[in-house]
Amino acid sequence: MPLFWKAYTSDVTSFIEQLKANKPTLEDEQRQGRNLLWDKRVDREAQAEYAQARVPQQPYVYQTRR
After folding, report:
1. The overall pTM is greater than 0.70
2. What is the mean pLDDT of each successive set of 10 residues along the chain, which is 66 residues long?
3. Can you spell out the DSSP letters for 4-51?
């Protein structure tokens, strides 16, 4: 290894680092967006009702019943 060796960074990594430097609130905005869609409270009762109401699927979906 040379004395003045510099670690390689890809173009994508450089772009992301530059983007984060230009917009420091980016990660907080991403977390807020995630909270809108994914971080929800689960209603266990409704989930149990959905499981009970589920109709079993036939073994071969495209076969018609006779």
Report:
1. no
2. 78 95 95 87 93 88 77
3. T------HHHHHHHHHHHH-TTHHHHHHHHHHHHT-----HHHHHHHH
